[in-house]
Specification:
14 strands; alpha+beta; BirA Bifunctional Protein, domain 2; eight-stranded mixed beta sheet; 323 residues; three-stranded mixed beta sheet; 25% strand; Enolase-like, domain 1; 12 helices; 2 domains
């Protein structure tokens, strides 16, 4: 696996690194690629989440914590200079489960080589003991796939617990009472500083380099502009939505808009689920102008290959959510 480097050593805002993942995926066919990055205090919202439901915006403004949205699904995370972000770019031919498993098992094995009791879960987390040290998300980009996530080294726990506001039923579904009780940091377990850990991780995971140029950095900066748009960051709504938690798939809120004649005019899905195929194309567009009753919806989706458009959610479960 190649480690991706940039020619400047300065720090960038989070959108730059999200755009860097895209740029590498679109422009380099170098096999698997990987890089690490750090940012000033920032909250990163999943593609399908409603910002107001997941983030304490007043707290973030008071403490100069920036808020951005990524293009992958999953839940809300906090990052700062003591929290390392991992980015992994690979071929997109494998299923999401296979890609996740390959990546999380690789990182968990690296942590075990340091003597930690590390394991990867069935969904997208890496644990030390029974507590989470890394959460990860995924999305396809053409024939490439991107997995990215946190590696909690010695982050600001006060900001994590105050800036991110998950629903209480989400915590209860996982058998914990607070965010703090379900996470840990590497600093609690390792006798090495953050730079030593980063060097070790790079040596363990990578066997070569992909060096980007100054021109590449300029193109990445231009590509990142979309992530700063307020419409992209704040443009989802949960008003009137019915929220459900589906084991293995996550939290999903559903809003169905209908015409006066009872036809489906639009469907909005929000939550911390992982999107592994085009939801609009495979689930929502086939239902437009369909009468909003169970049989009509089932008939409209009969020939649509909609299973696992959302990771862990079957077509039958999706229909159950609508009704």
């Amino acid at each position: 696996m190649k480690y991706v480097t940039i020619p400047d050593n300065g720090s960038h805002k989070l959108p730059f690194y999200l755009a860097m993942e895209e740029y590498v995926a679109r422009n380099f066919d170098e096999g698997d690629c990987f890089f690490m990055w750090q940012v000033a205090p920032t909250v990163i919202v999943g593609r399908n989440q409603v910002v107001e439901c997941e983030v304490n915006l007043d707290y973030c403004r008071e403490h100069n914590i920036e808020v951005y949205r990524r293009k992958s699904g999953g839940g809300c995370v906090y990052a700062d200079g003591s929290n390392i972000m991992f980015s992994y770019i690979t071929s997109g031919a494998s299923s999401v489960a296979t890609t996740f498993s390959r990546y999380t098992s690789m990182v968990a094995e690296m942590l075990r080589s340091l003597g930690l009791d590390a394991s990867d879960t069935s969904r997208n987390d890496i644990l030390v003991g029974e507590r989470k040290v890394s959460g990860n998300a995924f999305y396809h980009l053409g024939d490439r796939s991107i997995v990215h996530g946190t590696m909690l080294y010695d982050t600001d726990m006060a900001h994590i617990t105050s800036a991110i506001t998950p629903a209480q039923d989400k915590l209860e579904a996982r058998g914990v009472k607070s965010v703090r009780s379900r996470i840990t940091t590497l600093a609690e377990h390792l006798d090495m500083d953050i730079e030593e850990f980063k060097s070790y991780a790079r040596r363990h995971l990578c066997d070569g380099e992909l060096n980007l140029s100054v021109a590449d950095v300029e193109k990445i900066a231009s590509l990142s502009e979309h992530y700063y748009e307020a419409g992209w960051i704040y443009g989802r709504s949960q008003e009137g939505g019915r929220r459900s938690r589906v084991e293995g798939a996550g939290e999903i809120s559903v809003q169905v808009a209908t015409t006066p004649e009872g036809l489906i005019d639009g469907i909005n899905l929000s939550g911390d689920f992982l999107e592994v195929a085009d939801i609009d194309e495979l689930l929502i567009n086939p239902l437009r102008r369909v009468h909003f009753d169970r049989k009509s919806v089932e008939d409209a989706l009969t020939s649509v290959p909609a299973d696992n458009v959302i990771y862990g959610l079957s077509k039958a479960q999706f229909i159950d959510l609508l009704f």
